[in-house]
Amino acid sequence: MRRLAGAEQAGPSVAGSRAPEPTDAEIFMAMASGNLTALGTLYARHQQRIRRFLARATAGDADADDILHDVFITAGRVAVTYDGRSDARGFLIGIAANLVRARREKKARWVRALAALEGAVTGAFRRTPEDSASETQQMHLLNAALARLSEEKRLVLLLIELEGLSGDEVSSTLGIPVATVWTRLHYARAELREHLKRRM
Questions:
Q1: 148-171: b or e for each residue (b if 16 or more CB lie within 10 Å)?
Q2: End-to-end alpha-carbon separation of the chain, Å?
């Protein structure tokens, strides 16, 4: 069995013996050269520890598994920048922490943006007294309302309110006039407000 970095074993292999497992540094070298098997090896080696970290960092949020997946996808994308340490745990936890923070900031920005849709959203948010339970209920409520929008309106709303893109950036991304962006955003907000009112 060859090491993932691609180094040749010296001399013939002894029957029944196995090559030593690759170090994390060697795995990252292989990932940087496009070896997808290496990413699977890294995942198998570290996913349990990273999952435990994420479970604590997100207080058991359902997003933890999604973030876990993103940690390893991100590691594959930035493999060329790996600093060569033999144990990648700290590196992966750093990625995980940044993703948790980014996800939390994105949710907060999304809730603030929707709360600006006047009384319908604000009123809906007051239904649950406990903050942690309320956040979960809010997201379910908002996701259900979003699902009722047309794809064209939903995309514009998400790109502007959640991703923070400008009207010009959304216009370029979707290949539509800026005036169409603002028209779709206006109707998306109005429809979202109406959907939320019906759920109160």
A1: ebeeebbbbbbbbbeeebebeebb
A2: 61
The per-residue pLDDT for range 95-122, each reduced to its tens digit, is 999 888 888 887 777 777 766 665 545 4
172-179, long-range: CB < 8 A, 24+ apart: none
Residue found by looking up tokens 């009384």 in the block: 119
DSSP state of 79: G
Q: How many angstroms separate the Cα of 159 from the Cα of each of 4, 31, 48, 110, 165?
A: 40, 31, 33, 11, 6
Dihedral sign from CA coordinates of 118, 127, 162, 144: negative
- In the predicted model, residues of the chain with pLDDT beneath 70 are 1-17, 114-139, 199-200
Using CB atoms within 10 A of its CB, is residue 51 exposed (0-12), middle (13-18) or buried (19+)?
Answer: middle
- C-alpha dihedral over 190, 185, 99, 130, to 10 degrees? -10
